[in-house]
Amino acid sequence: MSAASDVIIIGGGLMGSSAALFLRGHGMSVTLLETDLIGRQASGTNFGNVRRQGRPIHQLPLANRALAIWRKSRELLGADVEYLQSGHIRVCYRERPELIEAMEDYAAKARLEGLDLELLTGNALRAKFPFFGSDVLAGSYSAMDGHANPRLAAPAFARAAQRMGATICENTKIVDAQKVGEDFIVTAQDGRTFRAPILLITAGAWGNALSSQFGEPVPIVPRGPNMSVTEPVPYAIHPAVGVMTPVEEETVYFRQVARGNIVLGGSTRGPSYPDDYRAYVLPQNTLSQLKQIRRLAPALGKLNIIRVWSGIEGYMPDSQPVMGPSATTSGLYYAFGFSGSGFQIGPGVGETMAEIIAQGATDIPMEPYKIARFAA
Amino acid sequence: MAEPRIVVVGAGPSGVRAAEAVAKAGLRPTVIDEARRAGGQIYRRQPDNFTRSYEKLYGTEAARAKALHDSFDALAGKIDYRPETLVWNIAAAHVWTANGNAQETLPYDALILCTGATDRLMPVKGWNMAGTYSLGGSQVALKSQAVSIGREVVFMGSGPLLYLVASQYVDAGAKVVGVLDTSSKAARIKALPDLLAMPSVLWNGVQLTRKLSKAGVPVHHQITPVEIIGNSETGVSGVRYRTASGEDKTIGCDAVAVGYHLRPETQLADLARCEFAFDAHTHQWLPQRDADGRASAAGVYLAGDGAKILGARSAEASGKLAALAALSDLGLPVDKGEITALRRDVANYSKFARGLSRAFPWPAAQAAALPDEAIICRCEAVSAGDLRAVMRETGAIEANRAKAFSRVGMGRCQGRYCGLAAAELIAAEAGIPVEQVGRLRGQAPVKPLPIAIGEEEA
Amino acid sequence: MNGRFVRLGETDRPHVALHVDGQAVTALEGDTLMVALLSSGGTLRESEFGDGRRAGFCLMGACQDCWVWTENGDRLRACSTLAASGQRILTSQPEATWPNLG
Predict the structure, then answer these.
(1) Which of B321, B310, B326, B316 is nearest to B343 (CA)?
(2) How far apart are CA B166 and CA B179, in angstroms?
(3) Residue A2, pLDDT above cutoff 90
(4) Which pLDDT value is given to residue C2?
(5) Residues of B with CB below 8 A from A277's CB?
(6) What CATH number has the domain bearing residue C36?
(7) What residues does each domain of chain A span?
């Protein structure tokens, strides 16, 4: 006998958990199935940027929708996920002056989508944020962006969904999903089966294993972020900070949490192993990250890092997620492959997927995310 | 074939004996140690301008300490010795080391981890106040710096070190105002059959308690710690405890040394991807190894108290044994008879160690009984009540999950001093066996790593 | 409080002169910074999370509860760093050197 509901969600990250909450808001019954515990991989181990700037312009309506949810997260979730709307700065280095033009161009287009960015010269930046090093040429400041705690966010969404009546099944590894007649039958490793007319796959790096069962393989690559955190120091850096660069190794970003620790991320992403459920920070990536942070913010060079971590993320070749209805199977939906950039938009993804499932349409542009773009 | 590269981490009893065995086989091992001088914690050497004798420093263990130091000194030139160097990560058969801001990466064919132990702690209300030290820390103060941790010192907890350090303090002229032991005399009697595996060590232990009573130091058994009292600015002013008969008493003091035997430093074994298993005797998760010290990870060997708390004598034997195992696996000739003898020694020490864990049991129930206002995680100043509230709100019952939500174990010490107690508290609150709570995963860097790392050439 | 730690011997060593929170302090050659500081004072640092002063805990580089600061912002682990003449130590975390509170 299968447990039945209106919607089954496979994958308890931020996407799945927030979709569960918003589907309950539409009055649909939901069962969320998670292999391990809620929000432990990409959703729980990322940097925690609640950042709109830098996203593709076509993604800004979704990012704006997500921002509205972050702003009311405390009331919505009944929990503090340490969301701070304390700004975000994106800078470029002297050796890449051409990026100033790219920043200006981006700011002009972003403004039309409701994202206001203030462009600052290096000296103006250093006057306002004296921690920047002399290599910093210019920056783009978004006052309305910020950051939150990824360890807390997805679990808080899942608990809120549960309070709203969603069924959350942790430690439930799914080994088979298929459509039989009008219903999807989903089977767990321990033999339990779940049945629903609608299936939403929010399984991150494991998404392809499930979409393949419906004839829609996608070229997803599992990787992992390199994260570090310093000892606590007096809280004085409010905005999240990141570097704009075409070179992956040069990528670096940091933010200070209100308790004082500074979270660092960036450099070449490491390997991750979805089958083993493990992701590792390679020591050489930690070293290269620290080198880059010294360049970006030499003042941090006196601190220590006390811990590093990573998690399993799924990357798509075009860095855009797979999101929307299946091209082969009615009642099947996807939202995975967020390519290391899903945290800010996460709640917006959940709300949008719930809207598509419950109402059949959304105003959010979904064209760039269609799974059919990978059809042979 | 190029000469095999053997890296020994730690220069305590097991590391020194491992390095010695490798050097004896004609190889030149690299010995990496965090300390300024070799010897480990137990045979820690005082700075070279200090003059106290071996007898004064190490008492009954003076000859062993001297032998170990002499052996190490004799290795000069035969080993690549790197003191004051931290192995901060291990990946792909390389150790990543930091000496100040200088970073170096060393490949290995065999890695012998002799990482030693730190104190096992059970939090008590007020233990975050200045003047509370780990028992081992109080011994380091005396042994390597010739200071007492205070004017009037209470020793509280359990384990052989409790009596040893208290009597060392008495000998050195410090004022010891009380020894508060959570274990019972009855437990010691029950453990006698195992403790008789090492009669001379047992005899030394008996002598210590005699010495304390002769010196007029009040020793109380089967007590329950209630609170370290004092002021958050100026520190400790006393200890409140409950006697075996249930009476609350207070001793005035300005320093407390607390410890409940030891716990192995297993972070590097974890980073080397060794498998762990729960040890029901000690309530600790231990890296798995075979009789000779081979870990589950290829090329990794575990010895000494860093693998399991078996004491310094065992550490010397297991260090040598691990080195012989590594040499043998690398195709070098080893003396089979010597291996057999060392295995027998280690088995005997294991029996004695089991006796110690019975005589001085880990008071797991104290964790469950911690009052809500007691700090459980000193680094992050998280209280037992905070942890309980997180459990109630989130349902977290797995160690790493509870850490992620509560920050217990997330601070600078990476859960070394709160992790075991937090697991017991979680288990008691959730009504599950503590092994089901799991263990905090080790995360690099093993100790804080400067952001300036790599700025200097190694 | 005069000092938390009490010397029990080995006092016949050359002196080392350092400054702690701006005050001249005399220690002995071979002292760790921790012993130098706690022979003349009661604590090493402030807990970041409001539960008061700390004075170290493990003395073996494991607990990380004895980090102090130099006047130029460097961090030193007091139990594993030797006291040296000329050191200028702070037992309170200096203000952030990247002021950005606007």
Answers:
(1) B321
(2) 7
(3) no
(4) 78
(5) none
(6) 3.10.20.440
(7) 3-47+151-219+318-374, 88-143+226-310
